[in-house]
Amino acid sequence: MALAGLARPTRRGICINAVYTPPPERGHGFASALVAAVSAEGLARGKSFCMLYTDLSNPTSNRIYQRLGYQPICDACTYLFQS
Question: What is the CATH number of domain 3-67?
């Protein structure tokens, strides 16, 4: 059991997001299979590439994504401004 979605399409690409596996279901390959299938769906929709954001502090998910063919491109930061 795992969850993932496609979002933020652009002319050429689409983003994989909301990848989640409940703790009791982890380690069975559900997320790997789902991310592979969702990525294939994004490409089947005519997109040239799929992208996703990862948590750099989670080596397990980063290893899975690289095994599926994803490559690190850049790091991103989130800033919150108080008004």
Answer: 3.40.630.30
Q: What is the pLDDT of residues 32-69, one digit of tens each?
A: 999 999 999 999 999 999 999 999 899 999 999 999 99
Residues in contact with 31: Cβ distance below 8 Å, sequence separation at least 6, in sequence order: 2, 4, 19, 20, 21, 61, 64
Per-residue tokens: 1: 């059991």
User: Distance between CA atoms of 63 and 79, rounded to whole angstroms?
Assistant: 26
Per-domain residue ranges for the chain? 3-67
Which band of pLDDT confidence, cut at 50, 70 and 90, is reported for residue 77? confident
Q: Which residue has the tokens 């690409």?
A: 13
Torsional sign, CA 76, 80, 55, 65: negative
